[in-house]
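Exercise 7.
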Amino acid sequence: MVRFALAQLNQVVGDIDGNLSRLIEAASRAAESGAQILLAPELAITGYPPEDLLLKSSFLRATRRALENFAAEAPDVTAVIGFADSDAGILYNAAGVCHDGRVRAVYRKQLLPNYGVFDERRYFTSGTSVLLIDSPAATIGVCVCEDAWSTTGPVAALANAGAQVIAHINASVFHKGKVELRNEMLKEHSVRHGVPIVYVNMVGGQDELVFDGGSTVVSQTGEVLARLPQFTEAFEVVDIPLGPVQATKGAPADRISLELRGSGGESARAPIEPELTPIQEIYEALKLGLADYVRKNGFNKVVIGLSGGLDSALTATIAADALGAQNVLTIALPSEHSTTHSLDDARDLAQRLGVELLEIQIADIYRSFTKEADAILEHADEGLAEENLQARIRGMLLMFISNRYGHLVLATGNKSEMACGYATLYGDMVGAFALLKDVYKTEVYELARRRNAVSEVIPDNILTKPPSAELRPDQKDTDSLPAYEILDPILQAYIERDEGVSDLVDAGIDAVLASEVITLVDRSEFKRRQAPPGPKVTTKAFGRDRRLPITNRWRELS
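Solution. The predicted structure, written as tokens, is:
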């Protein structure tokens, strides 16, 4: 039996002093609770992902100093801490083993992810050997994140070399279905190799990424012994029963011998937190991603254009939940095409949420623009230019308010609109953070209903009326796009699974419709490249995940 402390921390990229302080506090708690080994997340000292900060020699020196300072400040517990290790100009994603006031060993991550949002081979070199901690209490193997996503990789090597328990530190990025995949991976390894696994994950938002926590301990038979909550910091201590030594003769490994402190006291059993439903996970990921983006970047309040539609209503609701209603300013910007019920719905929502609502009529501003332009330009009937002008007036006013008060503007568009270009540059795309950027419209409805099941803050009329930009008389989204329940499955197939027209036709989609939707997506890349960041919740988000050239004549039409 070995007593582990699991420190599920919300670290900040580049905040080495702050990250170090949180690690030292975790070590103090671990020592007080009789833990023998403290585990902290992957790159816990630098934050994840540090990206091109890793190219700065001063940053790397500060990282190493922080690890050594941690070891000196936390001598009463053995700790495995993620950091960036630089050796003769070669950089490794590493785990430092700190014991008795010193850094006693370093394990270098072997499997470096270079897909989706991950770009580790740009910076890191792969390690070449596994690391075992030999002690009278147990033989403990160490691995880092991607190392465990291979059935024949470092976990197998550690088990073959005699590991009785595996300490697995992570910065695992959330997306829909990720938790299920991780659970299957942990169970498969533990059963296959007959070894318990202590999985510690980072938590928090970092630009477009959200780390969901959910640190988990599984026994040698795949039974869940402990599970920490998702989307919040947590610290727990748990006693891990050991697997048998199953060393293969001659299995190569780096080894270090340490005398672990005794655990003593009553047995430590961490709770098994219930798993969230898929729609709850998305809601909590959006909340955490927004809260951390706002606060980690030095803001306190956000400003949102409240149209009376569902996207802005859900954005305001999540913002109020994440930041507190007192930190959300909403602005209604009705035009001559705005319906009375939309303004009434915006007022109703603001009252239910308890957020401040200001109203600025844009009709006179719009007429002033068009009057001056029409005096010079050739006359034309009202059309797209006039529709987009209204959206841009709204965007300009939101940025004016942002500049005056120092609030951060949230864009409110969803993934279905962004995919098809149904958004106006410098208009409704204005903002520093696009909360629903990776959320399809059909999911927007699901999230709103899920939130209303807790307390009915989004008026029913917002949920039931047909979606409309209200930029011309009687406008509906379906004037330009297929119904969202038809559109979204096509978008998911094309964007997330890279399926073409023939695949969609095989799935029962009309060929003309499939071609039209795909063409809309392809032609809108230039808009998406100029969109603000937003939290990733799908397997392939626009931006870091899906990288296509703007100038591109390839068309997926067969």
